[in-house]
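Structure ticket #2291
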Amino acid sequence: AVAAAAAVTQWVLVVPEGEGAAKQPEANFFSVAHPRSGEQLLMCATRAGHVCEVQSFKDTIPRSFFLGDSVQKDGTLYLSTPVDPLFLLLPCLKAKAVDRFVPLDVVMDALHAPQLETCFTHEQIALLCDVNTAHDLNVYRLNNSLVLRWLKAKVFQAADGLVHTAVNTDTGCISANLVRSASASSNRNREVFAVGLVSEYLPKDFAALLAEEFKCSAATLQVSGKSKPHPSESTRTKRSTGADDEIDEEGGKGDGDAAGRPSASEPTLDYTKAAVPSLPDPAKKSKLTAAQKALAKVNTKGMKNLSSFFKKK
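Resolution: structure written out below.
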């Protein structure tokens, strides 16, 4: 009997330049709870102590990769982006080290990710916690003031990074090529945008604390993909269902005045439906020309229909 060769499972992974995770066989892939939603994330810890989040992109159209002389059937593309591991540790510190000093081992047990044990240094954890040393053992207690200071530094760092990108954070649809200079409003919009980015990896209470610090309302932040619905969303729903008393998510009537007329900012056409060609109304008869009236008076009795000449004999 000939033993069948085991199928080799491989993926195409894009890593940040300089990480070299693909060349390091000791790079560990593991799952850890998302600090905000609690869902499992695929992570990668490199030998250099860097932590990357691995995200997959799979198109609806079947795709494959040509790798040298072979074909990779699975066309899923995996992207790894660096993540500060303190974001992953913050929920565990909140659960175990709020009102007491605990050693790092207690916090790591709550994280359920032994691959991250070498990724945290004493200096990093001291950015979030009060530190006490007893019998050569460091113990930590979460300090909300230190956490807020660290989060503000992350927001400013992200906002500065947006300056060098092509991301337009101004309100409304406007091309970045039409922006003449970075105004004060643009700087404010970048800060608000950065608060939303950082809040993606924060528990809800810390996200609310950060939003309050930067005076951001919940409506201006888009966290975890739950953005505020478009103002015309309830209008489109009302028109598609034919209901006149459609209630939106905020508990109010749809946009319009007391007479039910649409407001100036509301589109008057429903662009969500396909265009339907207009059919002539059979009740309305078009006017006949003089030639058509004369032809209608001709006696056609005994005449053959023109289509009869094209039938099989």
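Closing remark: The CA atoms of residues 133 and 230 lie 53 Å apart.
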